[in-house]
Amino acid sequence: MTGFEITGAGAADMELMRSWADAEGWDPGDSDRFAFAAVDPEGFLVGRLDGEPAACVSAVRYGSGFGFIGFYITRPDLRGQGYGIQVWRAATARLAGRLVGLDGVVDQQDNYRASGFRSAWTNMRYRGVPGGAGEDAAGIEIVDAAALPFARLAAYDRRFFPEPRDAFLSLWTALPGHTARAAVRDGRIEGLGVIRPCGSGAPRIGPLYAETPEVAAALLRRLAGHAPDGEVVLDVPDVNPAATALAAGLGLAPVFETARMYTGAAPELDLGRLYGITSLELG
Fold first, then answer.
1. Average pLDDT over residues 165-185
2. Rounded distance, CA 58 to CA 91, Å?
3. How far apart are alpha carbons 139 and 183 in whole angstroms?
4. Closest CA to 271 of 160, 143, 147, 187
5. 178 and 131 in contact (C-beta within 8 Å)?
6. 217-245 b/e (C-beta count within 10 Å ≥ 16 → b)
7. Helix locations, the chain, DSSP H
8. How far apart are CA 36 and CA 91, in angstroms?
9. Phi and psi angles of residue 163, each rounded to the nearest 5 degrees, phi first
10. pLDDT of residue 131
11. Which tens digits make up the pLDDT trace of 157-169?
12. How far, in Å, CA of 53 to CA of 18, rounded?
């Protein structure tokens, strides 16, 4: 393609990718890009046509064996001309030899299947003001996650993600605007949640981990207290029926869905305690 080249994303490109994702209705958080770039600074790609951004994708490497694809977007006026598939090929080449995951919107899932991805579960986005009684689960203390040793938070997160992501997690729980809360019982972490602002929508909670639905509800309500009007967004994996029941029981409404897809067998994660995924862009 004459005049088309794929380069790594700079800081301005990362902001552009975020704005394009907003336009698609994906609503990444206001500061997400700072945590994203810390994981794999070279994992964000931009296709430029005559020097102008035309398409983008992220192909982020975690550890030695996992990768995640996100931000796969072609500028609307250039769709159908082959630019998107070029950045897609660059992304998959960068992650060759790894298990690769993504969260695919409904109208792209057949294309991902054609590229070797298979659905593992559906993430349903719920939105609303959590209702019901606001009491914490018995014996649980909700604390600022920053008050806990980071190594304990990282070890807890590893139950829900295929590879360590300490650099990401350290930023994700501490960036300006991000509020991280942990549920603690007798000195043990029994839940973790983060809420962050999204410029084009309600604040998003993710991740949300909990040992029981009661702990998940306590964390969710406490985090919702940091939303300007109490309204929050949560991407719930349907592979955990308790998470779906909790979202519906609290009066949140489904508004959007994606499929978590992998190129091979889904990794072994503690799905029964996963109540909300971290992000659509990086898993």
1. 95
2. 7
3. 10
4. 160
5. no
6. bbbbbbbbebbeeeebbbbbbebbebbbe
7. 11-23, 32-39, 83-94, 109-114, 150-157, 166-172, 213-224, 241-249
8. 16
9. -135, 155
10. 87
11. 999 999 999 999 9
12. 13
Which residues neighbour 70 within 8 Å (Cβ) at sequence distance 6 or greater?
57, 58, 60, 102, 103, 279, 280, 281, 282, 283
> Per-residue confidence at 137, pLDDT binned at 50, 70, 90?
confident
- Residue 219's pLDDT is what? 96
Q: How much of the chain is in helix, strand and coil states, percent to nearest 5? A: 30, 35, 35
Cβ contacts of 234 within 8 Å, gap of 6 or more? 125, 126, 127, 204, 205, 206, 208, 220, 247, 252, 275, 276
Residue with tokens 């660059």: 90
Q: Residue 211: is its pLDDT beyond 60? A: yes
What's the predicted TM-score (pTM) here? 0.94
* Pairing label, strands 201-210, 274-276: antiparallel
Instruction: Give the tens place of pLDDT for each residue, 92-121.
Output: 999 999 999 999 999 999 999 999 999 999
The β-bridge relationship of strands 274-276 and 179-185 is: unpaired
Extract the tokens encoding 255. Answer: 């508004």
One-letter amino acid identity for 63? G
Q: How many CB atoms lie within 10 A of CB 207?
A: 22
